[in-house]
């Protein structure tokens, strides 16, 4: 009777194994790739969680017809595939058909989960009557405001950017954005500040200041420090390097 959650990690092309093994799954894995620790804050204490990989080529997501066309998957096609996967899940595991279910995700799933939810609501199929809603954490909805300006503001809020760099980011990235670049009356030229060379220069500088190494020092839930690869390097796949 516990609710069922379908989880989608963002990227795109980041595996949901990141959430399973480094965020809210039942275990945490140390950098030695041998030691595991039970996670007392795991979501599966309250719900059944299905960690779903997408797009094709990301994590365990694959195609039986590995052509370039299949790997160049659009958001629209992905949403259709995710819906088909949900239907297949309930066919394979009919014991969950009576459970309320939700969609959930982070980052680029901000594009996928709302659209997939809309598809579920609009398709009048029996299983969809148990769909109750969706949850998003740190979603990428608008590339500029949440995925770009939001990142820089978060770094500043955590004291990871010095004053002089932040002033330049305000000048070239954030202040022009706050002038509403999407409003044709306020911005008749269509200027997009996040694409300017100066904004790119100082946002790159900010990220180099905030993330000077390839490794982060994290504290696990027992209070012990451990060195782990940054999650983007460890769990995300780029199909650009595939030899198809």
Strand order in space, largest sheet:
4-1-5-6
- Arithmetic mean of pLDDT: 78
Question: What is the number of domains?
Answer: 2
Count the helices. How many? 8
Tell me the fraction of residues in β-strands, as a range: 15-25%
Overall structural class, as computed from helix and strand content, comes to alpha/beta
Any guess at the CATH architecture of the largest domain? 3-Layer(aba) Sandwich
Question: Which series of helices and strands comes N to C?
Answer: EHEEEHHEHEHHHEEH
CATH topology of the largest domain: Rossmann fold
Radius of gyration: 20 Å
Label the overall shape: globular
Poorly predicted runs of 5 or more residues: 214-234, 238-244
CATH superfamily annotation of the largest domain: Alpha/Beta hydrolase fold, catalytic domain
Fraction of residues in helix:
25-40%
Query: What oligomeric assembly is this protein in?
Result: single chain
GO molecular function: serine-type carboxypeptidase activity
EC number: 3.4.16.-
InterPro entries: AB_hydrolase_fold (IPR029058), Peptidase_S10 (IPR001563), Ser_caboxypep_ser_AS (IPR018202)
Family: Belongs to the peptidase S10 family.
